[in-house]
Design a protein that fits this description.
By secondary structure, this protein is of the alpha/beta class. It contains 16 helices and 16 strands.
């Protein structure tokens, strides 16, 4: 009898060698089993969709955002407005009866633009619309009056380096994509300073303009003189380019009173629905609460922050409690390079094995098309199957790859990541400009975005197994 048992055991081993047991003691599920498990969430997904799109929660994320944006306004890192926004959200999340609402301290940059203006003096008098770039130094108190050199690229600037000394460099680069063109905003001052320029004015990183400049963060480099830098409208950049190509001398007066203060204390804002079975495991949904100091920060990233809050609200309102903890994080200091997210990562990375997926919405909440995902092929197949639950609203596509400053830290370490993919054809019309207001937002589109965000995060949080890595 012992011999027969031993033979059975030996024959049994090769089939399952190297396979880990699942939590319930059974061997790992096949993909067919996982598809069946996901299909079992069909009714819950429909309930979430109905509540968000047609039911009592219809337009709620939009209305919440409107009150917030109209009451608080823009929320620059280090500002009193951002402090007020964090206090507002802390109270609102508590009033929404979410769990473990708390703040986690972050040190953030504190830069203020102060008074700023630019005027073309030659060949005619013309007021130039400008927005100083984040971390820019000020001009001397009397301002800068200098001739302009207009270039279309860094290559042209360095070819004409001798002409640039003592002048204001105006960049009139074409908008290709944000990722490719934004280098002119982030590095324009450094490259201009290297050839002896006294200031730089950069064509706004925008795909469309109605004489509206777009701001953003820029970076100085050690060992390179720091010169004042600002963005100007597409129209003014193109006008000066035409003038320059005709051989017209252009003279500009620039005055900027920007100032950098010591870092300020700020907070990441956190709320949860605690998991029923594996509370230590986390499905994280997020957006950033800070914005630039123009417009209302409604699109970047009020919409992303508020659909992330809405994802938890919808789950709570339906009386659902997933197996894992569903955690909302509203980041601070994103516009300065993900400052809040980096400090959050440093604080929590020791528990990285418990992070199931990190999700961020930071490219608008326009008409959703699907989900962008970063992770293994096995995890992608599972998420693709989860997306089929959104067939009632016809938003089932999955894209490469997830994008988000605040979740990059986790994805680089192998944690699956997801970002909302929506129609961003008009996103850069308003990005970092006075035009980023509630007028850009559409309540019906936000309802759909919230439904996608809530269904995906809830199902991942409630499935028996974490996503494979």
């Amino acid at each position: 009898m012992k011999y027969l048992f031993l033979m059975f055991f030996v024959n049994f081993l090769p089939q399952y060698a190297g396979k880990s047991l699942s939590r319930d003691g059974n061997y790992p599920k096949t993909f067919k089993d996982i598809k069946k498990e996901i299909a079992g969430y069909s009714n819950i997904a429909k309930a979430i969709i109905d509540l968000a799109v047609h039911g009592k929660a219809q337009n709620r994320s939009y209305e919440r955002l409107a009150v917030f944006a109209d009451t608080i306004g823009p929320r620059l890192s280090g500002s009193k407005n951002l402090d007020a926004a964090i206090k507002y959200m802390f109270s609102a999340l508590q009033e929404d009866r979410l769990e473990n609402v708390h703040l986690e301290t972050v040190k953030v940059p504190h830069w203020e633009r102060g008074e700023e203006f630019a005027v073309m003096l030659e060949p005619r008098n013309h007021s130039i619309a400008i927005l100083g770039l984040g971390s820019s130094v000020a001009t001397p108190p009397e301002g800068i009056t200098a001739e302009v050199i207009v270039v279309a690229s860094f290559e042209e600037l360095h070819r004409r380096a001798q002409e640039a000394k003592g002048k204001i460099v105006v960049y009139n680069q074409l908008f290709i994509t944000y990722g490719e063109t934004v280098q002119y905003r982030s590095q324009g001052a450094v490259e201009a300073a290297k050839v002896g320029a006294v200031a730089s004015l950069i064509r706004s990183i925008a795909s469309f303009s109605i004489h509206s400049p777009h701001t953003g963060w820029q970076n100085y480099q050690p060992g390179v003189p720091q010169i004042p830098t600002a963005c100007i409208s597409v129209e003014d950049a193109e006008m000066m380019s035409r003038m320059s190509l005709r051989g017209t001398k252009i003279v500009v007066y620039l005055k900027m009173n920007a100032k950098t203060y010591p870092d300020s204390s700020s907070f990441n804002t956190v709320a949860e629905i605690v998991g029923s079975k594996y509370p230590e495991q986390i499905v994280l949904v997020s957006g950033h609460l800070d914005s630039w100091d123009v417009g209302q920060g409604a699109m970047d990233d009020g919409g992303g922050a508020f659909i992330s809050w809405e994802a938890l609200s919808l789950v709570k309102d339906l009386g659902l409690r997933p197996k894992r903890t569903l955690r909302l994080v509203l980041w601070t200091g994103e516009e300065q390079g993900g400052i809040g997210a980096e400090q959050y990562y440093q604080l929590h990375k020791e528990n990285i094995s418990n992070f199931d997926i990190v999700m961020e919405s930071d490219e608008g909440t326009f008409k959703p098309m699907g989900l962008a995902f970063t992770g293994t092929d096995e995890a992608r197949d599972i998420v693709k199957e989860i997306m089929t639950l959104l067939l009632p609203i016809n938003i089932t596509d999955i894209y490469d790859a997830a994008d988000g400053t605040d979740i990059d830290y986790w994805m680089r370490d192998g944690v699956p990541g997801a970002s909302l993919r929506d129609d961003i054809s008009k996103y850069f019309w308003f990005h970092h400009s006075h035009g980023d207001t509630m007028t850009v937002q559409d309540p019906n589109q936000m309802n759909l975005c919230a439904a996608v965000w809530s269904v995906v995060s809830y199902v991942i949080a409630d499935m028996e197994e974490m996503l494979p890595r």
